[in-house]
Amino acid sequence: MGSRPEAGRVLLWSRPDLSHVFSSVSRDLNFIDHTSDLGWKESQRFHPIVVDPGLYLARRSQIFHATEKRKTPDAFKVFTGSPWVILSRSFLEYCILGWDNLPRTLLMYFTNAVLSEEGYFHSLICNSPEFMNTTVNSDLRYMIWDNPPKMEPHFLNISDFNQMIESGAAFARQFRKGDPVLDMVDEKILKRGRNQAVPGAWCSGRKRWWMDPCSQWGDVNVMKPGFQAKKFEETITGLVDDWNSQLNQCK
Questions:
Q1: Residue 217, domain member (yes or no)
Q2: Is there a single domain that holds both residue 106 and residue 153?
């Protein structure tokens, strides 16, 4: 198996495949799993008031919980969802510049919320008239959860491989380090040799058992999708079709 910095989450398609599919998608779309149905999160994530010293200290430390709690705000609607998002440049510029002060208002609120990454972008985009209808309700990740869900999804293994690939998701999590299913992803999807780069059209060397064909390269900007791109393209097409059929994306 090729070396990986960590095995928590894995890209299931090559970068040329991703680039090819996303090149036909509007750059204004935001892939963000979201819902206004807060459920148990309302009392456990948004009512408690917390202070995270990690925001201003170099070292990690324990989060402090206030003794009092706060009500769910009524000046804006709180949304929650997956922390894994793909956001457009235009929306991120809005987050930074905040020309109507909404990004700053929500930032101040979520600074004292538990796991704010599961609510800040979701609430901001769905309370902004300019961006609320640019949301595609998906994080493009394959995960298996308990019902009701626990803090972390199941660890994926070889028995999940076929379903994981058929899902058409771009990413999958989570994996144990060194699990054999990671070798299957390398071999069957990415066509990646041991300790080698994922091959692409930029690789100009000959494929031999003793040599990495990508040890020689030509134009690194050449993008040639593989046959696997079709499955991911079907996923994105379905999501965009759903987006086109709905007038109000944030519910």
A1: yes
A2: no
**Residue 209: what residue type?**
W
Q: Are 170 and 18 in contact (CB under 8 A)?
A: yes
199 or 95, which is more confident: 95
Residue 35 sits at the vertex; the CA angle it makes with 29 and 36, to the nearest 5 degrees, is 125
Same domain, 126 and 44: yes
Task: Look at the chain and report how many structural domains it folds into.
Answer: 2
CB-based contacts of 167, cutoff 8 Å, min separation 6: 142, 235
CB 41 within 8 A of CB 78: no
Whether the Cβ atoms of residue 168 and residue 234 lie closer than 8 Å to each other = yes
Same domain, 91 and 159: no
Question: What are the φ/ψ torsions at residue 173 (nearest 5 degrees)?
Answer: -160, 155
pLDDT band at 195 (very low <50, low <70, confident <90, very high): confident
